[in-house]
Design goal:
Elements lengths: L1 E9 L5 E10 L4 E5 L6 H8 L7 E6 L2 E2 L5 H6 L1 E5 L10 H11 L4 H14 L4 H4 L9 H12 L6 E5 L7 H18 L2 E6 L2 H7 L2 E6 L2 E6 L1 H6 L2
Parallel strand pairs: 3-8, 3-9, 6-7, 7-8
Antiparallel strand pairs: 1-2, 1-4, 4-5, 9-10
Helix pairs in contact: 3-4, 3-6, 4-6
Bound molecules: adenosine-5'-diphosphate (2 copies).
């Protein structure tokens, strides 16, 4: 579904962030990218939504070279969840979640109904949390809103960059479990960046283990754990 063909990225200052990435992510598969800080995980992911352009090589989505897809159209097919979810502080949780459907031309009431469904899906009762403001939510709850919003346009692909990195370990485990049961129903094609090997093993159908600028191993959690 997403295919990297000999993809490299050298930043203008000469830093080689990744070199010769060559792998494929199947439709509905959740692949975790794990490795220490600075090894190229974020660069890899941001080339998928064209926030960063490869220096060489190409990335295909369903066989189509994404270099020839309009970035705005491309991003409509890609939900994006980051560590510090940016919510509009002066809008309610329901309206924050409804933003994407609303911007794509849905009527306000329909967009809000969809937002309520999405909040339900991520375990936030819309009748309780919908009318609150972001500052009235815990960090974990804000991350759930981030996931709900990324799912709003029903994109086939989700990019998640340390999505549970900013919350404490107990909440993190709950969010991981919740996301896995959500993923069992929505079956998105997911790339999830983490520096936490436990998270990578727990969440990944397969794991891409990064060394400096390249993938050292790309395999199932069992195979990665069993490796000598
Ligand atoms: P990770 O996500 O694994 O922490 P990154 O993809 O952010 O790694 O970074 C990979 C390498 O590229 C690092 O050496 C980082 O310092 C470098 N890098 C990232 N962004 C830039 C940039 N805009 N300009 C120059 N070097 C960068
Ligand atoms: P919002 O008001 O929620 O920030 P945007 O107009 O920024 O909405 O986002 C529209 C769509 O693009 C959403 O599906 C969102 O997940 C996605 N999106 C937003 N920013 C990015 C990004 N940097 N990379 C990929 N997708 C993005």
């Amino acid at each position: 579904m997403i295919r990297f063909e000999q993809v490299s990225k050298v930043y203008p200052d000469g830093t080689t962030a990744v070199d010769g990435l060559d792998f494929e992510v199947a439709e509905g598969e959740l692949v975790t990218l794990v490795g220490p800080s600075g090894c190229g995980k974020t660069t890899t992911m941001m080339m998928v939504n064209r926030l960063i352009e490869p220096t060489s090589g190409r990335i295909l989505m369903n066989g189509e070279d994404i270099a020839s897809v309009d970035p705005v159209k491309l991003r409509r097919r890609i939900g994006y969840v980051i560590q510090q979810v940016g919510l509009f502080p002066h809008r309610t949780i329901l309206d924050n979640t409804a933003t994407v459907p609303f911007l794509t031309g849905w009527k306000k009431e329909k967009a809000r109904a969809r937002a309520a469904e999405l909040l339900d899906l991520v375990g936030l009762d819309p009748s309780v949390y919908g009318s609150r403001y972001p500052e009235q939510l815990s960090g974990g709850q804000r991350q759930r809103v981030g996931v709900a919003r990324a799912l709003a346009a029903d994109p086939p692909v989700l990019l998640m960059d340390e999505p549970f990195g900013a919350v404490d370990p107990v909440v993190r485990e709950r969010l991981q479990d919740e996301f896995l049961s959500l993923q069992a129903t929505v079956r998105k094609t997911v790339l999830l960046v983490t520096h936490d090997i436990e998270e990578a093993v727990r969440m990944g159908d397969r794991i891409a283990v990064y060394g400096q600028g390249h993938i050292e191993q790309f395999d199932t959690p069992a195979a990665v754990l069993g490796a000598p």
